[in-house]
Model the fold of this input.
Amino acid sequence: MKKMFDISRADLDYEREFSMWTMEIMGIDVYHILNWFFIYSFLGWVWESCYVSAKERRWVNRGFVTGPVCTIYGCGAVAVYLFLWPLEEQIVLLYFGGMIVATVLEYITAWLMETIFHASWWDYSTQPYNLQGRICLGASLGWGLFTVILFKVFHPGVEKIVSLYSVSAGKIAVMCIMIVHLMDLIASASAAFGLKSKLEHLDVAFDELAEYLTSAKFHETTEDWKWKIQCIRENYSAADFYSKYSRRMEIRQAVWNDYLEQRGILEYKEEISQKISLFHKKLKEAYRENDFFRKRMLNSYPHLKSLPRKAKEVSLHRIIRKNK
Done:
């Protein structure tokens, strides 16, 4: 089966000279695939950036690269369309097909990024019915809904946009965008490789603080111990960027002081304050040593963490859940 598009006579003549663009993948020519890819990557960036910015109450430039694109959305939208466009009139099959295709793509992407950069870029470990923290049932259900919306709402509009300009203009635009995107990708990948050592440095600082708190003698009950571990975990997860974390640390330190005061053991107050301040200082130094690209990635991915840290957090979450 082949998908047909309206192309002018002049564009057809142009295609005969440069047949590479008319090569087909699963019934769709490369020209339309590339145009759709960049349009959906941009729309994905708009959605991700607005959604995360609203949650964080600050502007967040989402995406692995610096430019206004989220390539995983472009890849996901194009992959879903290529596999499922013959079923576009069957809503139920579209929904479940979208769930499967997008979930598989999300898992593969997470695995590849963890393997290449030795870091976890998103983590569903705390979500029910997750697989290794890379995918979860809730996200998969959402992908199914997005697939139906893509076919019924977005894709007709995307096809209309592509039809507004000539094929020759579209090719020039795609080639220019690809060159800029490749340069951006190389710079971002280089920065991502350097993040591993920074994350490990923060892990050491976190472990030192956690070891002190877990070995302190002012906890008398299991409930105290559970509260303490959860406190540490929430603090570290909140460290999406330095300025926000600074405020969180001040609040958490005040909570610790209240905790000690309630138990009449204020002799630990100064010691704990020093330990937290030292951790805060190490975090500040690690953040300031990062270049523009690394800082942007830390801001864009609040839950970015090293793989050993991810494993420890999963273990802590299991302990907390077990003791509830």
In short: The beta strands are 24-25, 28-29, 119-120, 130-131, 135-136, 305-306. Residues 236-248 have pLDDT under 50 and may be disordered. The longest strand covers residues 24-25.
